[in-house]
Amino acid sequence: MLDQGVFYFFAALAILSAILVVTRRNAVQSAIFLVTALLATAGIFLNLNAEFLFIVQVILYAGGIMVLFVFVIMLVNLDVALHQVQFNRQWFVALIVSAVLAAQVAAAIAVSRRTLYTVPAAPAESLEPNTERVAFYLFHNYMLPFEIASILLLVAMVGAVVMAKKRV
Amino acid sequence: MNDTIARSILVVSLVKVVVLLFLVLTAVAYLVWFERKVAAHIQGRWGPYRVGPHGLLQPLADGVKFLLKEDATPAGVDRFLYFSAPLLTMTLAISAIAMIPFGPASIHIFGIATPLVIANISVGLLAIFAITSVGVYGVALGGWSSNSKYSLLGGLRSSAQMISYELSLTLSVVGILLLAGTFNLSELIMRQDGYTWGHLPKWNLLNPTFPQILGFFCYFVAAIAETNRAPFDLAEAESELVAGYHTEYSSFKFAMFFLGEYASMITVACLASILFLGGWLSPFPQTPGLDWTRYLPAGVLAVAGVALIIHGVRYINVFGRIALPVLGVILGALSFLCSQPGVIDDIQGPFWFLAKVLFVLFVYVWVRWTLPRFRYDQLMRFGWKVLFPVALLNVILTSLAVVMRK
Amino acid sequence: MAERYKTAGTNVETTVLGADEIILNMGPQHPSTHGVLRVKLRLDGEKVVGSECVIGYLHRGVEKIAEHRNYQQFAPYVDRMDYVAAVSNGLGYCEAVEKLLGVEAPPRARVIRTILTELQRIASHLFWLGTHALDIGALTPLFYCLREREEILKIFEKYCGARLTTHAFRIGGMQYEAYDELEKDVERFCKDFDKRVDEYEALLTENRIWVGRTKGIGVLTADAAIAMGVTGPVLRASGVQWDIRKAMPYAAYDQYEFSIPTGKSGDTYDRYLVRLEEMRQSRKICLQAIEKIPAGPILGKVGKVLKPPPGEIYHSIEGPKGELGYYIVSDGTTQPYRVRIRPPSLMNLEALDQMIRGHLVADVVAVIGTLDIVLGEVDR
Questions:
Q1: How many CB atoms lie within 10 A of CB A70?
Q2: A63 shares a domain with A5
């Protein structure tokens, strides 16, 4: 009961914040609601006893990436954006695309109910560390994809630095 | 899970939260008093002296003053963010303390044994870092939403600074994680139990596999920067940016920033003592020859109590002549209580823990009132070109040592 | 002066701002502009690309007031210019009027004047050191400096009853005889003052942060310093050995041994070292002076009503902050026709723009501190 209540709370918070991200006129406020949405997602992770994932979500997304976002937005002159039209005339197309996407997700869930293998919920004993299991899978089973992703990110980072700085 | 047990655990936790909140807020208030006193004595002054004997009621007066001051909101602020920034800062700073274990013993509330920690979660250390990493928002948004250039510069400075030093801060404790293999703070302390090299305690600072001296240095410096204190207090560099990100804040909103800063000071000091100084473990081995060290808590309290009584009766005003001896008597009674067989073991943990935290806090204050302030670019250079490589080096050396030992 | 600002291209309002530039208004209400100085900074990020000083917030028309007071009546006013070094101001004014009158203070008065003025120099430098360190973020030296300054102010208080605006001297000499224990007090102060300076040095000189914050900051070359008319420790730190106490001795300075410390690079760190050494030299002068204070009268032959012959005079002394000059025109009446004061702070402040260009906001604070300005003197 409590678990479900917590889930619905965080889910509602996440959706509400996500809507506000799009509709807020002020970029800094949008960014803050994006942080809220990410934190609400983290809350759902915590509710599923995935503490490590929760922490990573908070540290990386809310504490790392979004801080940089906010940092950059704060530096940019916002007055221009405030006087521009926020929504252009393609909203109708966007609405159709979103509706199709929603339908697809719903269909996928409906189908997977029967076919997909569902993982049983982790035991409620919260002191059982799932950190080790994450590390194990990451560095044993998925070693190669992990390293490839790392190199890709490194290349992207170096590229960004080179492009941003005119003389290295 | 049984519903009644779950409910009573919830109630016990709530009680603990309320008690800790009260204690933390009081501690924060008296930390300000402590800092002012230490600063004053470093500078050859007396410090707060008028409100209560030795200024002991000064925190109360400050609190009342903060509450009664006019709460001015400058024109053109982003109201939502302007109001939420101080709230965010204080809430996050205080909630981080929930992860801190204050002692090994369990206490009994409503017949349920409960440890001296609110949230004993498996990733406690990471959770604290997660909370402090979100704490940047309070500073950044406070600076941005105030609609003032000084605030904006202060906010930008401190968010850049906090992001940079967070990296070194996190990296500096990786060595300890490698040695201990757990994120849980209570377990981290338990791993430091025992003695090495004769009678030196096996704290992580003196870990026999690889002493975390480099790590401690990095942690300490990064923690000062992370809490925006001198010599890294660029965010609020009074002589340059007036008061930095909280220039435009007044009254209780300012007090929230203030409380947040001191609460996070307490957090990092607690963390320093847990990670490097053995937390609640006594520095003396419990061998028969050193058995008397178990009476140290009682002894310290007794000496303090007697000193207060002797000094109190000669105090300059009547209030002090009454209040100080009464305080001394209370300390004496506590000392007696602490020497009783039932309590003496329970009190060891919290005593040593608090002693270490107080020591770390003292060093903090000491540093602040001694050193000049870094310039912004120097700070960044130091953070990225000195602190970060040293922390990295510590990680590499520690992991090598761990591998060699295996 | 306005002309010079325009040709130097520093007038912020007339210059078009770059895309990344903002204007930061520093002061007049700012904790580290040392009073009511207002500096308009044009910033690129945190880098200073231009600046303009706005002064006059403390203007009281001291020079104009002089024209409506007689010579003795104006003497207390000069104390209020550089209120951190009132004794030096008084000395300059009294000597200027004496020169105009053609009288000389008796030897005893001159020696005591020297002692008090040198003590005042130490006090002024102490105050500078404390506030300068405070600006750079070292909060504690201020209290150590004020502790020693307090001793000096106590000597002043014992001598003339006032601590800050002393009005210690009179035209033609001094009004009060030195109190009995003056020598002893000065000796006691000087005895452990050297150790105190060592204490400040222990806190700052070798401190990596301090060196990092001051070395190479606000460099003023010797040529630029001379061109801007900068004087005092700021000039000497740039390597120019110019000290009016040696070049054109006044009071009793020709009788004493002391050296003029100079710097090499003309940066904030050198100015810090120069001033510290100057304090040591001042102490040396005081010790020499108290050894033999000549006996005799303390007030020269000046009448009750001062009527200097028509003419003009310029007399300058080496104040703690630089050349403090008085230009007095007399029309033969009891009131000066015109008094023009050359305040060292104002001239030194003009170099600010050159010194802070290309540095960061934090350095602006350090440079304002190192110039050792007193706004009461800048604005008069």
A1: 23
A2: yes
Residue A115 lies in a domain: no
Residue at A106 is within a domain: no
Note whether B127 contacts A: Cβ–Cβ < 8 A. Answer: yes
Domain segments of chain C: what residues? 2-54, 62-346+358-379
Residue A78 lies in a domain: yes
Chains with ≥3 CB–CB distances under 8 Å to B: A, C
Residue B316 lies in a domain: no
Residues B242, C365: C-beta atoms closer than 8 Å: no
Q: How many domains does chain A divide into?
A: 2
Q: Do A67 and B152 touch (CB under 8 A)?
A: no
Strand duo B112-115 + C336-342: pairing: unpaired
- C-alpha dihedral sign at A113, A114, A116, A121: positive
Tens-digit pLDDT string for chain C (380 aa): 344 444 344 444 434 555 567 777 777 777 777 778 888 888 876 788 888 888 888 888 888 888 888 888 888 888 888 888 888 888 888 888 888 888 888 888 888 888 888 889 999 999 998 888 888 878 888 888 888 888 889 888 888 888 888 888 888 888 888 788 888 888 888 888 888 888 888 888 888 888 888 888 888 888 888 888 888 888 888 888 888 888 888 888 888 888 888 888 888 888 888 998 888 888 888 888 888 888 888 887 887 888 888 888 898 888 888 888 899 998 888 888 888 998 888 888 888 888 888 888 778 888 888 888 888 888 88
Sort out which chain B residues have CB atoms less than 8 A from A79's CB and list them.
none
Residue C210 in contact with partner chain B when CB distance is under 8 A: yes
Question: Token match 């004020």: residue?
Answer: C146
* Structural domain count, chain B: 1
Assigned domain for A118 exists:
no
The A residues from 115 to 134 touching B (CB cutoff 8 Å) are: 124, 126-131
Chain C neighbours, 3+ Cβ pairs < 8 A = B
- Last residue of one domain, picked from the residues A31, A54, A85: A85
**CB of B62 closer than 8 Å to CB of B52:** no
Residue A1 belongs to domain spanning: 1-85
Residue B308 domain-assigned?
no
pTM assigned to the model: 0.80
Domain presence at residue B303:
no
CA-closest candidate to residue B375, choices C195, A113, C360: C360
What residues of chain C lie within 8 A of the CB of B369, using their CB? 139-140
> CB–CB of A74 and B140 under 8 A?
yes
Query: Is there a domain that residue B221 lies in?
Result: yes
Which of the 8 DSSP states describes residue B48? Answer: S
Nearest in space to B49 (alpha carbons), one of B33, B73, B27, B29: B33
Give the CATH number of the domain where residue A45 resides: 1.20.120.1200
Same domain, A3 and A74: yes
How many angstroms separate the Cα of C110 from the Cα of each of A47, B209, C121, C260?
A: 86, 74, 16, 21
Give exposure, C115-137, as e/b (b: 16+ Cβ within 10 Å).
Answer: bbbbbbbbbbbbbbbbbbbbbbb
Phi-psi category of residue C148: left, alpha or beta, with phi > 0 → left and psi -120 to 50 → alpha: alpha
Fold of the C62-346+358-379 domain:
Cytochrome-c3 Hydrogenase; chain B (1.10.645)
Residue C87 near residue C152, CB atoms below 8 Å: no
Three-state secondary structure string covering chain A:
CHHHHHHHHHHHHHHHHHHHHHHCCCHHHHHHHHHHHHHHHHHHHHHCCCHHHHHHHHHHHHHHHHHHHHHHHHHCCCHHHHCCCCCCCCHHHHHHHHHHHHHHHHHHHHHHHHHCCCCCCCCCCCCCCCHHHHHHHHHHHCHHHHHHHHHHHHHHHHHHHHHHCCCC
Cβ atoms of residues B101 and B118 within 8 Å: no
CB distance C204–B378 less than 8 Å? Answer: no
Among residues A52, A85, A118, the one where a domain terminates is A85
- Same structural domain for residues A9 and A80? yes
